[in-house]
Design brief:
single chain, 331 residues, alpha+beta, 30% helix, elongated
Length: 331
């Protein structure tokens, strides 16, 4: 019976030892994915801020608050269409950054379509990838880091400049009880396109371009990222936009600030995102750490127990008895 039990234990030991790497390297890439129908809304605020008032003689004013509402909406129909050609799970996010002044009026509105791999978050290039109606070809990440984020720099896409540049890992910190990775990216003064939708009625970006007036922008971008899920739990920007050659549009100064402020995520949205990430990170840890290492430890323990039972069984049976010597038969 002991020998039979040791064989059963040995079979289970092999099973759990084999299951350990399968969970980490086979199941995890296939199960840990961004759902295609995900919807997320985040509100950020700059308090106080500098803002160009288009409705009051194009004056630059100090205002108590500017609000930015960012939405990410999964487009399931488009993701299924792209998956047929891409041959992998794809997520399509229709994003919108909507900026309003203290009076509730629109300051700017920038739509985006971001197409990426559901597991790795690597960009997938397909028809429809755009920023504010302009086709783009993203390199690197945007909005979210990969699962199991590493302590290194990443290429991060800047929607204003339509280009990618490094976002630098600056160390590990504690944020609301979570161990997070802190990243920074600085975009130097860069000429960027005028928004397609202007806050001035009857004025188009093409009309402004003909005057020679240009829009410039710089920002310092900061993210606190949960390394398990790759989700930012907090984000801030020190943001500044200017109009240059502004006198060509009849403005009082040649360089005018359009918007300047330290943009921060509203505290209630920070709490909501931290709660969501805390619940999701357990699922990733189960597939990448808890279950693989647990099954490996269980397999090792069962293997040791099987060897112990086999050794005990052999000691109990003792050495085999010698056969009695044959008695010669008299002739």
């Amino acid at each position: 019976m002991r020998r039979r039990a040791s064989l059963v234990l040995l079979a289970f030991a092999v099973f759990f030892a084999a299951l350990s790497p399968l969970l980490r390297w086979y199941a995890f890439p296939r199960l840990a994915k961004i759902p295609p129908s995900q919807y997320q809304e985040t509100v950020l605020e700059a308090k106080p801020a500098t803002l160009l008032d288009y409705n009051d003689g194009m004056k630059v004013k100090k205002v108590p608050k500017v609000t930015i509402v960012q939405t990410l909406k999964g487009n399931v129909e488009e993701s299924e269409r792209i998956e047929r050609d891409a041959g992998r799970d794809v997520v399509v996010w229709d994003a919108l950054s909507y900026v309003v002044g203290p009076d509730g009026k629109m300051v700017s509105e920038i739509p985006e379509r971001y197409i990426f791999d559901a597991h790795s978050q690597a960009p997938v290039h397909a028809t429809g990838e755009m920023v504010d109606g302009d086709p783009v070809r993203r390199e690197g990440i945007e909005f979210k880091w990969p699962f199991l984020t590493e302590k290194r720099d990443y290429e991060y896409f800047d929607a204003q400049a339509r280009t990618s540049s490094p976002i630098h890992y600056k160390g590990t910190r504690t944020f609301h009880g979570l161990e997070v990775y802190y990243f920074e990216q600085t975009i130097p003064w860069t000429r960027v396109p005028m928004p397609k939708k202007m806050p001035i009625q009857g004025v188009s970006p093409e009309q402004i371009a003909k005057t020679g007036m240009t829009r410039w922008y710089t920002t310092k971008r900061m993210f606190w990222v949960d390394p398990v899920t790759g989700a930012p739990v907090n984000g801030e920007e020190i943001h500044r936009e200017e109009l240059r050659n502004a006198r060509k549009m009849g403005m009082p100064e040649d360089t005018m600030t359009v918007f300047a402020g330290h943009v921060k995520m509203r505290p209630d949205y920070v709490e909501s995102i931290v709660d969501l990430v805390t619940s999701q990170r357990l699922l990733v840890l189960l597939l990448t750490s808890y279950l693989p290492w647990g099954f490996l430890a269980l397999g090792t323990a069962l293997f040791a127990l099987a060897l112990w039972l086999e050794a005990r069984s052999r000691r109990r049976d003792g050495p085999p008895e010698e056969a009695p010597a044959a008695t010669p038969v008299p002739a």
